[in-house]
Specification:
The structure is a single chain. About 55% of the residues lie in helices and about 0% in strands. The chain is mostly helical. The termini are far apart. The mean pLDDT is about 80.
């Protein structure tokens, strides 16, 4: 997100995480993982420059592999 005041924030991505009540830990783990990916040095640049959903998928998979989560 970026902007000069709360009223002018802009978003480049929005994630919805759906989990059943018995899978709260999965929800929190997924949220933590997404935050870690978004904090990568080149993530925002790669995300913005992605040409389509396949490239976005590859960016996420690349981050997952680099993190050693497979």
């Amino acid at each position: 997100t970026s902007g000069d005041s709360l009223g002018t924030l802009s978003f480049r991505a929005f994630f919805i995480i759906v989990a059943t009540p018995d899978k709260k830990s999965l929800y929190l783990h997924t949220l933590m993982w997404l935050i870690q990916i978004a904090e990568r040095a080149n993530f925002e640049k790669e995300w913005i420059n992605a040409k389509d959903d396949k490239e976005i998928r590859n960016i996420i998979l690349k981050a997952w592999i680099e993190r050693g989560t497979f």
